[in-house]
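#struct-help
A.M.: can someone run this one for me? Single chain, 412 residues.
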Amino acid sequence: MSYIKLTAISKHISETIVLPASKSISNRVLIIRALNYGWFKIINLSESEDTKVLDEILQSNDSEFNVGDAGTAMRFLTAFLSKIVGKWILTGSARMQERPIAPLVDALKSIGADIKYLNKKGFPPLKITGMNLNKAEVAVDGGVSSQYITALLLIAPTLLNGLKINIKGELISQPYVDMTLRLMSYFGIHSIVKNNSIYVEHQNYEPKNIKIEPDWSAASYWYEIAALAENANIKLPGLIKNSLQGDAVLSEIYKALGVKTSFSQKGIRLIKTGFDNAKINYNLEKYPDISLALVVTAAIKQIPFKFTGLKNLKIKECNRIEALQNELQKFGIAVNEIENGTLECNHYPEKINKHRIIIETYNDHRIAMAFAPVSLIHNNVIIKNPEVVKKSYPKFWDDLEKVGIGRKKVNI
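D.P.: on it. Structure tokens below:
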């Protein structure tokens, strides 16, 4: 196991950072291209491990696929392979085999899919016998993962009778479903959204070249850096206000954490400002991928906070709520889960622990990246298994070095 110690040479951050392409958009576009009758060019495809895994599988001639820790690939491929004639085995890492997939499997089986669990019921690995799916209506729980709905939406226009998706309960992470519908529209697919239902009739995707946006989720760590630095002037080219990505809400939320966002035709600029230290209260149900950076920023700045809508974090690459609590406790900061998915912190120690702190990353890229900026105020932070950032932001540590946050391998 490898470890790196982070050292902030300067706390005055001024740099232009080219963010990685959006993994969320890239993965959706790859599935759309695989379902398309014509080839099209994808410009600026994400270099993340998740996207590479999905791309390789979609171009493979094999019948057994291992997605590793790529949750999006697992969900999207479960739906995709269900309609591709053949026999398929779909598996993943040990953690992936602990992440539930029953709501999606049940939905697919209700429209005619043949899917069997090879080990534990409700979890990967799966044996999928692909076939033509002809039932035109399905119900799916909106309260577990928006990726289940996206997986169904992506294949919907290719089904002979189209598909009407009835969403039961409240839809979490709705911006990701909106992203899917906007991308489908870009490729010529018309959909009807009414009340809690989405109807997509049988249509063909139109082949059109597309350029993938930079990743707003990756920007969250640069907002965190701006908030924790003594002063900051960070340019992030290519990010736009009217983004396909819901995580663009960062520009609004971080105002309360002392970061101003300026938009231009070239991208955005982050400027460190003051903050009033009042309690921050946000519902982050729609924005799970930026929640870790927000929690760590508020906690390290010792701003009282209450963040709701985070129960879905428990079924990510790790139980992210437990991970946040465990790692922040090492600084002497107690974050309480006052109810399912609600994190609160009202009281802080007089002094944050300044002794050596080893951040356990739980094989989770977002844990590693969320705690890395803390090195701006704590000079003895060590990150365990830093390679996990490959999942979404392979050049993260190189980009940190550009702004003066260096890394050195250490032995523990």
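A.M.: thanks! The first strand starts at residue 3 and ends at 8.
D.P.: also worth noting: The longest helix spans residues 23-35.
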